Structure formats: structure tokens, C-alpha cells
Please model this.
Amino acid sequence: MKQKSDRNGEENSSSGRKKTTFNLSELVMGGIVEKEVNQAVSQPQLTLLPFPLARHRSHAPHWVPRASNHVIDKDKDDDDEEECEDLTKFNLVAAEANPIQRKQKKGLDFRRWKEIVNNEDDVSLYNKKDHKSDGNAKSHDVKKEFNTAKSQVVNTHDHNTGNAAIDGNGIRSTVKSNNTTSNPVHVSAPIEHGSTSIETEIDAENRARLEEMSTDEIAEAQAEIMKKMSPEVIKILQKRGQNKMKKNTSITSAAIGSIAEAFSESKSKESMTDNAHSMIITSPDQIQKELENKEVNSSATSLWDTWSTNVEAARDLRFSLDGDLVNDYGQVSGSVENASERDFLRTEGDPGALGYTIKEAIALTRSVIPGQRALALHLLASVLYKAQDNIIKNQTGSTLKVGNHNKNVDWEALWAFALGPEPELALALRMCLDDNHNSVVIACAIVIQCVLSYNFNELLFDISEKTGIFEKNVCTAPIFRSRPNIDVGFLHGGFWKYNTKPSNIFPFDKIIKDEEDAEDEHTIKDDMVVATQDIAAGLVRMGILPRIRYLFESDPSATLEESLISILVAIARHSPTCADAIMKCERLVQVIVHRFTTKNQTGVDYSKIKSVILMKVLARSEKKTCVEFVNNGTFQKLTWHLYRCALPPDHWMNIETEKFKLLSALLVEQLRFWRVCIQYGCCVSHFSDLLPALCIWLDIPTFEKFMGKNIIQEFTAISKESYLVLEALTRTLPNFYSSQKVDQSTDEPMNDTETWCWTHVGPMIDLALQWVSLETDPYLSILLWLSGRAENDGLTLTSVLWVISVVFRFLFGVLKSVVPEDNSILSGNLPWLPDFIPKIGLHLIKNRFLSFNRSDVNHVGSFLGLLSQYRHQSNQETSLASVCCLNGLLETVNTVNKLIKLAKTEVNDSSIDHQSLENADSILTDGILKRSIPEMTTLLTAFMKLPSSSGQLMQSVEMFGRGGPAPGVGVGWGAAGGGFWSLNILVAQMDARLVLQLLEILLVESVKKKENPTAEERNINMERFNCAFGLCLLVGPMDGFILEKALDILLQPQNLKYLDFGIRRSLTFGWKYTEEEYLMFSENLISHFKNRWLHVKKSKSKVKTRDGQHGGSKKSKFSLNTIQEDVDPSANTSLVTEWAHQRLPLPDHWFLSPISTVDHTKLVNLPVKPNFLEVSKSGLFFILGLEAISNQVSSNSYSIKNVPVIWKLHALSVTLFTGMDILEDEKTRDVYSNLQELYGQSLDKKLLEFGLTNSVDFLKFDKEIHDSYSTFVETLVESFAGASYGDLLFGRQVSMYLHRCVGAPVRLAVWNALSNIRALELLPPLEKCLAREAGYLEPLEDNEMILEAYVKSWVSGSLDRSLTRNSVAFTLVVHHLSYFIFGDHSGDKNSLRNKLAKSTLRDYSRKSDHEGMIVKLIQYEKPASYQKLEQTENRSLQGSEIARRLTILSEACEGNSTLLSVVEKLKKVILKDK
Model:
């Protein structure tokens, strides 16, 4: 009852306070007021820095009366005077008020710190007993003294800006001024309670003694102590000392919290400045140099450390309210001790510093003042937008290489930090979205829109849709690679996975509905964990969708409505799961559609445009959603403008320019929405209703009128989308020579879908040909051939090129529907040919799209050559549009040529003027491609050089096994230059498509024409063959069919002959392959590559969802499982492609998969399990051919030489992992041997780059391949010992792991495995091993564990047979042990040498048959030449050297009489042999 009355009293008091109005900003200087405070808040008064707010109640001194700090203007109104009146009567007690002090720690007393700092002489150690405060002194006097001294030190911050350092033991801190004349001052360390014992006095005496000693005296004392103690004791003491230092450092850092009020507030800012400046000042050359100077064996670790350092430094960067980096870290003007002149906005950091960090801005979003919250959100939006903009502009292709010459920031690290777990950005934004102030909600929506990278992602999606090539869009959810395992040979390029499971993405309402019994299972912490993995998924999980629905229902402003729809678009593009969450959010879609239809029906704004975009994206996510939109009338409601705009062109001229631009953007998105429905087989019948409007947009406009009104780009955008709609309609056309209708996108009968009629095709073709009438239309001719004369010509040229490219796409779609599907018709003649086919062909010939004159090949004599020039424009969109034109032109020409050849009829079209073009008929009949081969060859040569450089860019984007370092969406992945979401990658992929088309035309045609090509033609074809495999690295998740097409073309039996030709020309290979073997290689390789890299893994969540759709009730224990119907996996149920569950893009070593795959069928379900032995045989031939032709092609093109040799050596080992069946075939055995020789030579070249004397083990199998590689080699050794019987090739492969370039852990694992199963003698001699002998012997072994393993094998008898069989194992042991035991060592090496020497002597005393082994060890001499190692070993040493070695053995015995007698015995044996 008492607690209840207290609460009632509090409520009454709060209600009483509510009636009083005063300036809250002056009263909360010493305390934090929560957002839900029930007080009338007035606007805060301005200070030197805006928006003062106390960060802690102990940080605002109030011992000065408030009235003394303010000068009241007499001219103010009475109202202002009332506001300044002290209603709380604080002035009466202000003089006696003291600041709230933090709780003092026991044993800490720093009252004399000011005296210590001001004293320039050394101060003796501080004793707590001598400085106890007087018991009669008042506590507040002591505190006042401390704070007064503290404020004096802060005031002198500008003069003393030195660095504070604490030594390892945490005993004293030396403060050095920037002035070189100042003396260091030693500050005593904090002393804990109970430390005043004898230990403290001893420590003080020791340190005083050390200060008196010189450096030489200290070194002598240390040496004396080292001699008196054993090495084991020294190690123990050193370890204990290090632990003490760590402990003392942590204690000291906690204990100096009080004195940090004086020093750390000023010094911490300098340390933050240093960290921040390390990101800003460091130049890219310095970063690259530091990375190169690091050891090779820690390359991956160093990259991660560098990245982590950059992210940590981003924490301390400060930004202005406009989002600009604040480089000035000096203090603001004014007195910092005056509370009214200090900035208390921050919850951390220095109040006197300029700008705000990311965390400070996020903390400010919880201020009690709405203006502060809004400005904090504006700051975040500005910083995040600039971060993304600079990430896009960073085109270096590496996240760790940032141009810092202009004081730029590592924006990738800043973006990753902002979206990371520490700032808790997602939680802050979700809370701000619930704010009751519109300005805060609008600002929050803008920040969320920026966090979801809406603007940058939509720009890329818009350009992607302009191409008309991609039928599907790709999801933007962040992803990572699955870890490789032995089943796939540890090859990288595993399946992509979502950062967070799709099951974690669900609306907030579902938690309450489905988890009523588990209230504590889902917490805010769980939401924050999901948000750190995927920020979009975290926002959806936090219930952002119901909140957005509520804001829509509250009649938001235009700005807020536009931002909210943008957020929904970004969420819908995230993944099918998020799109489904939007659809399942109650009333959300209905509210958006209702606002579209009821708000200003005749007007157009950005909210309407984005509403159509949202519905289009949702329809793309699933066919069921699209059908639902059509059935419930949503499609008709959102596209009614298409019917209203069937107006003559003159009417368009009367519309205002800005309104027309908005209307054009709306019509473009509505046409795209219609196109999506057509791709699903819906709304095809709407063509008849929209035909009047389409005819206006499809016809070529009067350019002069539209150019005068500056709306030509907007009109051509509508025309472009109209032709893309026609291109989508062509896919619903039934085949011209077949009665059955087939959907070209799904290859399934379209009995339940609508179809387009052939009667509509002819008029549409006539309209399309007007856009490509370069000779008859003067404006088009001038624009395309003389572009760049005016300022707006570049933009107009780009827009016209886009229209021409989609016109070719439409023509190609029509021609593709004419190509017969019946193989019997393809093998014979077509019954008849439609008139529009020769019409299209003659139109292309007449308008000079191709050059048929050999003299004009190198000149701009055709539109093809002109487009090739436009590809090199600086404007990326112009380059992309020109490449799309080239792709469409080649597809159209190739299809027309194919149909004319099938018809084999005379071409006679009355619409063509044969007098002006006499040879048009003969060119068309003879073949357009045949007559334009020279120009095609020139074009291919020019474009082959472009994608080669882009392949490495594609590989460098993937960072730490992720698409980007940040958990954003799309561009928000945070990769440099946009990563996979950049126009550079898109242009490179378009170039790859074009090159592949040209290769299909030229490579295949050349093979068909000549069965015995000349040497020059073979060289050209090998160059093209090599380039084609480089193109495969550019294939993205939407381009799987490109890789499939490339494999079908390049791996044909006739093309594999070029590999055989390259092998015979560069290597000694006596075998010949038959046509049957080429055919077998082709089938095995094509099947393997498609199954290995193109197979999409089925999502388990989708399977579970499908299984759970029919069963709401629980099944009984004895219920039968439901038999699922057979579902065709190729069914076109979605127009989006997920990054997850597939492997593209390929890693650079993808071609090694045929020989480095154990059994990949465990990961994917294939109908037929492949024969891995035959695949491996085919793969060995294929890889040897690639290696051979890579030596004969230009260095500019892609070459498999760029793949690290470590992956190639590993692939050869995986081939033998399951046994040596593959080596039983003689041909395959020779191929394997040649590959070993090639890779051995590569290893030697790599070794020469580092030098033989450098201890660089760059073959880090356990770092670069897999961290459990030791287990792999142990299994490989077991297979070698059990099945090889000392096979030479198998032995060479195993002995490769004993090479000095191999990392020590792998070498040790291989040696121990061989020793344990007595297989060391099965290894081949050193001269027959892979690579040169010197690589096994140099540099000398210095790893203690490996040397001990050598001696252990010696003693255990594992080396007994190695001596007689001349195995490389005994040679390595003798070489490395001899030079370690008899070399010059000191310190710890001496004890190890004595240990090893005694072990060998003790073994000889027990086993007399080891006499020859130990004699060879003593007499071993480093060979001058490794070519004749056996003869060199037997060469006798000089007598003095033998005596020296025997003396070393005697010293190693350490007085052991038994071992000394063994040495004497050895001496006699050696003298007897001589």
C-alpha cells in the first residue's frame, strides 16, 4: 500500500508539474529526460554548438548561479521575461550546489596529480600511507579541489597536447609534450588496497635500483640470471610475467578512470584523431606497400586485419550536420567549463570536439526534442548517401585500395560499420518510425530508404530493364558462400546462402499469432541479431510493414508517401520471402492501390509512379501474385493511363514539359507492368484495346518538334518500352510452321495462357523498320553519323540507340518464332518463306548495317563499325546501348541468314529498289554472314580484349566469401565500385554476350568449312578458344544459359581437336585420339560442367512450405506420407533469380573441377550418377590442352596461367584421393605425367621469384585450400601406401608435399603419416621428384617439430629401407639434420641440437645396423650440383671437418660416458673406412 501511495504521489506531482510551463532546456542540463516526459517543452536556446543536452548528470557543473551566466536584454517582451523567470527558485541554492561525483574506487587517491604534472623534476614513488587526507577535512572540499584542478588541466589542453603512454607493467605513465625541450614526468601508478605490504616496498626498491643502472649493467645482470636457470624455468617465468603484465594493464586501465577526467578527455580525442587520420592520410601506395611487405603465409590474415582496422577507425570519424567529414579536431572557441557553451549532444566522446560520430548521431535520435531527432536523422541520411556514392565511384575493384590522396575516407569500412552490430542502426530507425512528429518520421523514412540503397539499386535495375535482354531480375538480399568440403575437392565457388534464413523473415504479427505459448522466445535482441545479418530482414522482422500500413492509412504527406513506397520496393526486391511478406500484410497492398485510384486521378506524381513499380516488382516475384492482380482488377486500375493516352502527337506538344516527363515515367512503368503480365501469359488480349495508343508510340516521331520542346528522351523511352512489350508478345506466338503453341520461355505447351496472333505481326514490323531506316530518314542519319555536334546530342543519341536495340530484339523474336522446330524440316527445305523475312534482310543490306566491301573493314563504312566506336564512349549508358544494338543486330542477321539458307529460293521483293542496290539480292541469297566475315572478324578482334580485364574485376569483388562486407541490399553490400551491382560488370557481361555470338558465328563456321586448317588459322582459333573460357568468369546468376551455350560451342568434338593440336606442338606426346574419344570427352565435360556449376539446389524452405500447404491438422503416428505430384522444375513460376542456392559467378579455378571432384552428387540430386573415372580422364586431357595453348596465346587475353599453382597441384592430388585407377590407362598416365612436369616448372619459376635462401613457404594448403587439409593428406598417404606399391607418379605427387615451399603444418602431417605406416621407402628418389631438387633441400629446415619428426623416424626404424631404396625421405633427413646438428647455433638451438644428436647416438648404440646411416650423416656434404646427388654424397670430407663434427657430437653428449664411447666408436669406424 505504501508503494501504491508513493506511485500515486508521483502521479499527482507529475500532473501538477504538467500545468507549469518553463524552459526545459535550461533545467535538464544536469540530467537526461526521456522522450515520453509529460512536460511542456519549449525551443532550446542557441549555444556555440547547437542543441545542448547533458550526456550525464555529473558532467554539468551548477555551482555558478544561472543568472550570473546570462545577460537579460531589457528590450525583450514581457513574455520572454516570464520564460526566463526562475520558477523553481534554483538561484537561491545555486551558490551551494555541487556537482554529483562518481563513486571513488577504494585505494585510489590522485589529489596530487596536478602537483605531479606541474613538477618538471622526477617525483619519487607515491606512498598511500604518507598522503592520507585529514579526517577533519570536509569531503566536498576534497572533491572541489579535485574538480578545480581537473578544469585547469582541461583549460591547458591547447598547450599540452602530448601523448600519454603506460608501460607494460602499468607502473607509471610518461606524458610527453610536443615541445622537444620539455622533460618527461613520471606519474605513480594506482595502488590497490592491501598492496602496502612488503611486496610494494621491494618493488619500489627494485625499480629505484634499475633506474640507477646503465643499459650495459642491466644486460649483464640479465645474462647472469639466464645462466643460473634452466631454459624450462625461464620459459615458465616469462610466461608468468606476460600474464602479469596483461593483468596489471587491465587493472591499470580500470584504475586510471579518475585521472582520465584530466588527461584522457584530451588525450582520447587525440588517439581518436590518430585512428581517424590513419584512414584519411594513408595513401593507397602506402597501403599496397604494407600489404606486399607482409609475409606471404599470412596474406589472408593480413587482409582481414587491415579491413578490421579500417572498420574500427570508422568509429571515430566525425561528420557535420550536412554529412561532410570534419577534419578539424581542434576545440571550439569559448570556455569548455561553462555549461552553456558546451555541446552535450553526445553520449560519448569529447564534448568540445567538432562534428558527430555515427554512434553519437544514432544516440541523438532518442533526444526529447523533435528537432534534434530530425537533424540527427538528416545527418545519418547524408553520411550514408555519401558513403554509397563514394563506394560506387571507387572503381579500383578492391575494397582495401582507396584513393586517400585527397583526404578521402574508406567509405566501404564506414558503411560496414554503420550497418554493423555496434551502432544498432536498425533498432533506432524502427523506433523513430513510431515517432509522433511528422518531421521525424519523414526523416526516418529517408534514412531507411538510404540504408536499403533504393536510389542506387533502382538506377541499375532501370538500365537492366532498358536492355530487354534479362527476362528476370536478381534478388538483392545479402549472401555468403558455403564452405567447401572434400566431396567437391575443396574447390571454392560453393552454393550461395542467405545471410539470414528465410524463416527468420516474417511480419511481426506472425510472432504473436503463432508463438502465443512462447512469449520469451522472441526478443528484441533476436531482432537485432537478424538485423546485423541482414538489415532489410531485420526491419521486416521488427514489424515495419504494419507500421507503414498505418502511416498510409493516416493520410501521409507526398514526401512521406513517396519514401514509404520506395522502402516497400526495396523490401520487395530483397527476396521472394520479403515480397510474400508484403502481400500477406493485411490491407497494405489494398491501401496503396486505393490511394492511387482516388488521389488526384488526372494528375501524376512520383508516388503513383513508384506505386506501379511496387506492383510490378511484386508481380515478378511469383506468378500467383501476378494472376491475383489481374483477377482482382489491380492491373486495370494501375494501367488506365495507357488507354487515356491514345492521342495524336500534336496533343503531346501542348503538355507542359515537367508534366510530360512525369507522364512519360508513369507510362514507362505501366508498360513494364504489362510486359511482366505478358511474360506470365496474361493480358495478351489487351493488345487490341491498346493498339491505337501503341501505334502512336511505335511510330517514329518528328524529331524537330520534340527536340524543340526538349522531350525527345521521354518520348523515345515510351517507344522503347512499347517495342519491349511487342518483344514479350512474340514469345506467345505459335510457331509459324507448327500447329502447337509453345511458350519459348518455359518450353511448355501454353494451353492455359493467352497467345498473340500472327495477323498483328506484319504492321508492327513495318513500324519497326522505320526506326532502322538510316538512309531514308535524314534526322536519324545525321544523329547517328554526326553525333556530338550539339550539347544534347549525347543524351539523344543514347535514347535513340536504346530504341534501335529493342527494335532488333523485337525483330529477332519474330524471326525466332519462324524457325521450324521439326528436325525433318530443318534437314530439308522450308515449304515456303514469309515475305517479311527477305524484307528485313534487304532492309538491313540497303541501310548499310553491315559492310560487304573488304576495303571498308577498317573504316566506319557501316553501322556495325559505328556502334563499335560508340562502345568506347566515356558515357557508360551510351556504351551499354551500343553493345545491346550490336547484340540485337547480330541475332537478327544470323537468324535471317539461317532462314534464307533453309528456304533456298530466289528473293524478289518489290519494295526494294534494286537499281540503287544491285547486289542486294545476290548478297541475301549467298548469305549475309558469309559476305560480312571480314567485318565480323575485325569486330571480334576488337572486343576480345575488353572482357579479359573485367574477369579479374569480377573475382576481386567477392570478399571473404561474401558478395560484400556489409549486410545491406544490392549496392548496400558495400563492395568497391558497387561490386556485382555496378555498371562496369553489366557492360562487361554485355561484351561477353557479343563475343560469344561472334565466336559462335566464326569459330563454328571455320571448323565446318575446313577439315584441315592451316597453322595460322589454328593459332587464331586457339586464341579465340582461350578467350571464350575467360568469358565464363563474367557469367552471373542471371546468365546461366550463357555458360551453357559457351560450353556447348567450345566443347564440341571438332573444337577439342585444337587442344590436341596445342598439346602436340608444345609437348612430347606420342598418343593419338580417335573421333570416338573426342566425342566421349565432349559428352563427359559438357555434362560435368553443367551439373557441377549450373545445377540449382532446391530450397528446403520451399519444399517444406509446399508440403505444409495441404495439412493443417496433425498427422497420426500411423498416417501415410503424402505422395507429391511430379513438378517440372523448369516451370516458369517466377521472374526473379535468387543468388542463393546456385554457384555463379565461377571461381578462377573452375576448370579444375573434372579432376578435383570426389562426389558432388551428395550435394545435389541428379537423375543419373556420372562416371567420375571417365570424367577425370576427360578432365586431364582438357586441362593439359588448356595449359598447352596458354603458352601460345597473347598475354593480354585470359590464361589459366593466372590461376595459382597451389590449386593445380591440389587438383592432381584429389584425382588420386580415391585410388590410382585413373593411372592404369596408359594415355591418361602420360597426360598426368605431363601435367606434373608443367606444374613442377611453374613451382620452380615461383621459387626463383622469392629466392632459394628466403624462408618463404608460399604453398599454404591449410590456409588457401582448407583449414583441415592435414586430414586430407593423411588420407591421401594411406591410399598411396595401400594401393600404389610405390608407383612413381603417385609417389611424386605425395613427395611434393615435402617441398620446402609447402607450409610446415602440411609437411609435418605428411611426414608423420608416411612414417607411421612405414611408407617413407615408397617415395621416389630426389632426382625423380616433382620440380627441381634444390627446392626440397633449400632453405635449410629450422622447424623444431619437423626436425624432431625426422629423428623420431630415424630412431623408430621407418627410414631403414629408405636408405637402400634411395628414397627422397632419407636424403631430406640426412641433409637437414646434418646441417642443423653440425651448424653454428646459439641459445635454444643448442639445446635442441644436443637433444637430436643424443637421440641418434643412443639409437646407434642400440642398433648396430644403423651404422651406415649415422656415418652418412657425419660425412654428408652439401652438393655443389643437385644433378649428381648420389655421387656427391659419397665424396669424403676433409679430415679437419670430420674432426670438428665428431667434437660437436662429443660436446652434445654433455659428459655422458656411454654416449662418449659411441662417439669414439664412430671415430674408429670412419678412420677405418678411410
